[in-house]
Amino acid sequence: MKKTIADPQIAYILLAIATIGVYAHSFDNPFHYDDLHSIVDNPHIRNLGRVPSYFTDPTAFSVDAKNAMYRPLLLATFALNYAISGYEVWSYHLLALLLHLACAFLVGILSQQLLGNRWAAYFAAGLFALHPINSEPVNYISSRSEILAAFFVLLGFCAYLRRGHLWGLYVALAFAAGLLSKSTAVVLPALLLVYELIIRRRFPVAEKGLFAALAGLFVLYVSMVWSLIAKATVGAPVRPYDQQIWTQVKAMVFYLQLLVWPSPQNVDHQFQLSDSFFDPIAGSAACLLLSLVALALYHRHRHPLVLFCLGWFFIVLAPSSIVPLNVLVNEHRLYLPGAAFALFLAYAGLRLKQKIGAQCVGGLGLVILVASGYATVQRNGVWQDEYALWGDAAAKAPLMARPFIYLGGAYVRDGRVTEAIAAFSHVVRRDPNFSLAYVQLGKLYREQGRDDLAVDILEQGLQIDRSAPEIWAELAELYRLQQDWPKSLSAYEQAVEWAPNDPGLRNNLGNTYQVLGRGLDALSQHQQALTLMPEDAETLLNLGNAHKMLRQMHEALVSYRRALAVREDFAGAWFNLGYLLEEMGDSQQAMAAYHRAAALDPAFAAKALAYRKTLVGKP
Asked: Which fold has domain 401-499?
């Protein structure tokens, strides 16, 4: 039997081809923003053997323990990507795109179940796949958490609708997996309840066992992450709750606008705080939202799906609206709400078909999909490098600090020092809470030989936030270069206290202990660094130096050889191995090691000769 485009297999294959085509040129887009601390600098994802620890240790989420989050399944996908391609980004983007396609297919299945029309379902799936607002979670690798959580929520919802064999178990498993991906998956039971109340117009008495199981999973999850929840909501919220609620009321309307007309898109939207209904914008937004709810309630019997979609939108955004987060608004929060928007437009198309005919509605739907795909292609290009992404953000949001932080970083890497200082100084003036701005200014001033200015700006930053490890680390480096070892040690100890999972900081602290003759302390730091970053050549070299300092010659020999097994062209390790062998009385092997070091780096030739004269008086 000949298949046509109306056949689900053909339709979804075509959708996959279109989506892959739209995102094909994004596979080289680099890491950005939170990718640095959670992926690029995160030693925990570099070893698949550490995956089980993700389920018990929230600090594995980041190199910086302050950024602890409980997302073990997300980290497992990052570890898988690292095992496949290291830090080559193609595999990260490929997995994100495959997950996005899976979500689009689930939106299609959900729409088919609720609308009973395959063309409407194809449109909903296509709109979700191609909508430019979803370009952020697909391009921004850390936003995979949104895609992964949405996948399991949609999977659980579809299992609930289809009621197949063991469907209740599948719903519960999907809910658990969603929670292990990101806390936003907590909304699944509420979505199921709203479906029962609005669409089926019944209370789910027959499903009470399932809802009890979901409640149990929720309680278990909350008990596991309570310390993180308490910190964000009670212990140290980033803003007062009156500001949070009224700002997010405005955000709801802003999000609706982005779904309907996704322009302007920005990685960091310029959005201001509100703290009262009497704020003109917040008050107007509240009135508009209440009007939409009232209208949907009034027409709930004729159009229950409209009320359901609106409920879905509010429920999914509730966690980020209630819990104060650092960023006021961002586009990846619209990923799962976008499923309801796609469903709503598909339903609206069915209603419109009765008035203007199937061909007109089909043509309009095709125009929407093509326009969405084109807009997504254009938006993907913004993620191609830091200048494009953060230059776009700074131009659209000149009052925001974050774009200038990352734009300044790009200037630094290209040696545009004057422009970098101007960008970071703008950040300090605009938002003094950005510790990275102080670090970068301190580093730039230090490199210019303006040490007094460097110390002043770093201490200014510590007055704002004494728990910023990056500021302590830069201050320690400044004192190290000045050979003020006690001050450098004190600063490194503070840095490690606030970032205990940073192997680089532990190595630097260990090296400082070595300079001060504290071999046991140095050994402890290098051992902990090696635990965080197994088989790292630099760390193994430092560990060998600490063993040698303690006259543990065999252990030092093992460490140096392990370093060279990891990195055979490591000139410093060859030299230190030669020095150690010289002390152990094996001059022949020592000379061979010195020759290897000198061949890799000629500077070690003279150094080896000087060391031999010092140690044994040999020419």
From this structure: 1.25.40
